[in-house]
Write a structure and sequence with these properties.
Elements: E1 2-5, H1 11-21, E2 26-29, H2 42-45, E3 53-55, E4 61-63, H3 65-76, H4 84-98
This protein binds glutathione.
Glutathione binds at residues 6, 9-10, 49-52, 64-65.
């Protein structure tokens, strides 16, 4: 998967999660004109123009930090507690920190 990012921005959380999860990924930077470092129009990938954005190997795009972090956790089978209530507490903390 590709993680579209700006250095030091909120996409850093997803980068850390990818490392902790042990998933394969590639970082793709975005410039201020919304061009990706691999030469694409970022707004065609995510019309909202926000990072973080991920692109899966089949081209599927996913946006919104809380969703991407949850996706990384689910895909890896790591990072989320087994206990159902503790999972909800994790989402609660994520929502608190993100808003
Ligand atoms: N609703 C989005 C907001 C993400 C967001 O605000 N990203 C900022 C960087 S931290 C961004 O891409 N801003 C647009 C820009 O700087 O051009 C989310 O939660 O993922």
């Amino acid at each position: 998967m590709k993680l579209f990012y700006y250095p030091g921005a909120c996409s850093l959380a997803d980068h850390i999660a990818l490392i902790e999860a042990g998933l394969a990924y590639r970082l793709v930077g975005i410039d201020r004109e919304k061009r990706t470092e691999d030469g694409r129009d970022f707004l065609a990938l995510n019309p909202k123009g926000y990072i973080p954005t991920i692109e899966m190997d089949d081209g599927t795009i996913l946006t919104e930090n809380q969703v991407i972090l949850t996706y990384i956790a689910e895909e890896s089978g790591k990072l989320l507690p087994e206990d159902r209530m503790l999972r909800w507490r994790t989402f609660e903390a994520l929502a608190y920190m993100s808003s």
